[in-house]
Amino acid sequence: MKTSLRDRTAQVIIIVLLSLLCVSVIYPFLYMLAVSLNVGSDAAKGGVYLWPREFTLYNYEIVLGNVVIRHAYLITIARTVLGTLIGLAVTLLMAFGISYRMLPFRKQILAYVLLTMLFSGGLIPLYIQLNNLSLLNSFWVYIIPSAFSAWNMFVMMKFIQGIPEALIESAEIDGANPLRILFVVVLPLSKPMLAAIGLFTAVGHWNDWFAGAFYVSDQNLIPVQTFLQQLLSAQDISTVLGSNNNQEALARGTMLSNVTLMSIKMATVMVSAIPILCVYPFLQKYFVKGVLIGSVKG
Fold first, then answer.
1. Model's pTM, two decimal places?
2. Fewest Cβ atoms closer than 10 Å to its Cβ: which of 45, 52, 143, 150?
3. What are residue 279's phi and psi, to 5 degrees?
4. What angle do CA 282, 192, 78 make, to 5 degrees?
5. 206 pairs with which residues across the strands?
6. Range of lowest pLDDT (119-123, 149-153, 185-189, 243-247)
7. Interatomic CA distance for residues 194 and 210, integer angstroms
8. How big is the chain by its Cα radius of gyration, in Å?
9. CA dist 252 to 61, 238, 264, Å?
10. List of domains in the chain
11. Sign of CA dihedral 47, 53, 54, 60
């Protein structure tokens, strides 16, 4: 089938625009990678764009050798894994329960959940509530407040309502209780949607710096993104090289003049971004399928 000149022109324009969009997204990442792999004092002269001019791994040695960053990584990994699992469990249980149309006070519960999406109490009431619950300056301040998402619950509920009722009715005829129906019928069919919601939840936990900055004052409890936020606003490299490990590394003969605050910042950004990027290829097929199913069922 021959395409008209107008269609071919439109295709060329679309390809050019998408190519420019890809370049605008990929180039900053490549630039930060090049600066992080370049000697800091040399990168400060300029001219480093896509490839390091003087290759070095010392920036990463400093970042990964910092005790605060290593501990922040453990906090981030723990909150991401635990927060995602708890969030998925709460979302699935809530959505499964409300999906029953004969549930008592179902409309009232839905209205209450919807109200939380439209109105918020604000930062100060939330801070007071977290203080009353003794969650401030604790690890659980990252988990409990974000364990439930009204949006994820509604998406999951619509998906469950799209499951053929014949499957659930046949399980009920065989004597299955609601809990067995959840684990035998609903859960296996919900894997694509759970993967999509889980990916969004994990990315939210990994990228969150706000909770660590405002609800936690103990440096041993801050996540890596909060440390990165503090680092990006720092004006002195001693903020980064203040640990004993770094001072010992400098004492072994490494010259401080080869390190700049910018090179350390770029290395920290790359170290904090690469792990979550590596998750996408493994969940891509479930993520795409879940989004498509959600769009059709919604």
1. 0.79
2. 45
3. -75, -30
4. 55
5. none
6. 243-247
7. 25
8. 25
9. 13, 17, 19
10. 61-297 (1.10.3720.10)
11. positive
